[in-house]
Amino acid sequence: MLSDMDKQVDQLLLKIHEGDLASNKREQVIRELVHAAATRFHETHNEEEILDDALDREQVESTYIGLGLAVPHARVHGLQRAGIYVATSRDGIPWPTEEAHLITLLIVPWENPEVHLQLLSRIVRWRKSLTEAELCALAESPEKLEATLSTELEV
């Protein structure tokens, strides 16, 4: 029998940002990804709350994980399921001390912090398993990136 957490992970929404990011500044990239994710996930009524939480977290501590990966994230009251919205940047986005080439916006229900931790852990583990060449190859194909992440996150 699936736990509530497993059910939420099974219902995870995953979308890949297609095309170039409009900005190369961290805060503007987060704004762009939140807007795109809210639209794609039909959460436009929660867009401001998602943005506020993601930017607040970034102010407290950078969400840059290492290995070119940044994971801005937000926990939002009333969400029915978690969502991950992924963008890549060939040139990199300055993220306080390093450049992020893979930006993974994670949006999770406030009511279930375990899903947040589980997904964050899976994203980091997946990124650590990739070589730079593999990541570059995936960044060139949104379809391959989505398929690979779907498998890794068991979406």
Structure, explained:
The chain is of the alpha/beta class and 155 residues long. The protein has one domain (4-153): Mannitol-specific EII, Chain A (3-Layer(aba) Sandwich). Helix content is 46%, strand content 25%. It has helices spanning 4-10, 26-40, 47-60, 113-128, 132-139, 142-153, and strands at residues 13-16, 64-66, 69-70, 73-76, 83-95, 98-109. The model is unreliable at 1-10 (pLDDT under 50).
SSE layout:
Blueprint: H1 4-10, E1 13-16, H2 26-40, H3 47-60, E2 64-66, E3 69-70, E4 73-76, E5 83-95, E6 98-109, H4 113-128, H5 132-139, H6 142-153
Parallel strand pairs: 1-5, 3-6, 4-6
Antiparallel strand pairs: 2-3, 5-6
Protein traits:
6-stranded mixed sheet; 155 residues; alpha/beta; 25% strand; 6 helices; Mannitol-specific EII, Chain A; 46% helix
**End-to-end span in angstroms?**
17 Å
**CATH topology value:** Mannitol-specific EII, Chain A
CATH architecture descriptor name:
3-Layer(aba) Sandwich
Helical region count?
6
Question: Quick gist of this model?
Answer:
The protein has 155 residues and is an alpha/beta fold. It has one domain (4-153): Mannitol-specific EII, Chain A (3-Layer(aba) Sandwich).
